[in-house]
Amino acid sequence: MCSTIHAHEQNISFISLLPNVSEPEKNVSVADTCVASNEMKNKAYKICREFLSGSWKSISSNDMVFKTVGGGLSNLLYYCSLPETHTPLCGEPSQVLMRMYGQIQGDQDASTITESIICTLLSERALGPKLFGVFPGGRLEEYIPARALVTEQIREPEISLSISRKLARLHALQAPLTKEPTWLFDNMEKWLAVRNEILPNSIPKAVKPFAKKLMEFDYKREMAWLREIFKRAQSPVMFCHNDLQEGNILHMESKESDGSSADENLVFIDFEYCSYNYRGFDIANHFCEWAYDYSHPEYPLFKESIDQYPTEEQRRAFLEEYLKTLKSSSIHGDIDPKVNTIEHLLEETETFTLASHIMWSLWSLNSAHSSKINFGYWEYGAARLRRYLELKERLMERLELSSS
């Protein structure tokens, strides 16, 4: 979802997490809007008939329930449903989401193809929403009546262990994507380049103390140092989500009473950042999210609670369950046994916590410049950079002790 509103900005229902919601054009008449809506409904009806069959072939376009969920330049999302008078005949879904890619070109076009591949793969492995059809310009997806988790829930022991097992299964996937772990530094380089475009007088006075830290920090030097540190971390390169925070994990409450396992009740969403990456980053980034609440009602619209970062006992429980699941997968034999231990993973994730903090600080700098969402980007970026520097100091002390 290339244009999704990043869930760092909103932690709300699944439907509204998916695309950017744009304001309607002011010069478009109601009549024009209705014509466009009817045209899209007819298009959706035809696509649903062709891909879903069953009861969908026995209804008319007027019968179909059709709602615009949201839209932007890169994604338009529509809810399509059978009327109450019709029930599925042969296992076809009664309601779906239709995603239209909108205006895309160049790198975004390539990203859309990659995302469709990822969605297909995760759908087949029951790790993401089911995929019912891929067509020129869009796809049909499962409608999931669920809500995203909140920060407190990812700390709950049962949910945390379910996340660890699903993450291990995700990491074990073999995807037809480049296996080079360039995603992390490619993004940081891209976001850092934006800093040159930010004019000092464009920064609001109230946030200048926070912005000053991000604008003056020597990211280039830190990135060079991190590249060397990560080489020594011996973190296996796996298929990673790269943004596994509470807003990107759905809890399907409707399944609670039907005998489904806790794992089946959780679904990962938002695969915008999926790529092959260092395993340590994916796990470390999730641990960091324990300490950040993005549903805070007052500006800067997030709350940092470092005391909520998982304790060593909680991290050990997560990693033990993760390794247990990973060792039962086909990928296990390809990994050096020395790195598949709890102790190694504890050090590995601590090292890559540096990457999580510095990457999201750069994301914030970029978003402060480009996003129109009301969110404390400068404050958030400064908070993550502060945690990066604190952790770096502790790790440097540890490295000096281990080498003496």
From TrEMBL:
GO terms for molecular function: choline kinase activity; ethanolamine kinase activity. Keywords: Kinase, Lipid biosynthesis, Lipid metabolism, Phospholipid biosynthesis, Phospholipid metabolism, Transferase. GO terms for cellular component: cytoplasm. One of its GO terms (biological process) is phosphatidylethanolamine biosynthetic process. Pfam families: Choline_kinase. The keyword Lipid biosynthesis applies. The keyword Disulfide bond does not apply. InterPro entries: Kinase-like_dom_sf. Belongs to the choline/ethanolamine kinase family. This is Choline/ethanolamine kinase. The lineage of its organism: Eukaryota, Metazoa, Ecdysozoa, Arthropoda, Chelicerata.
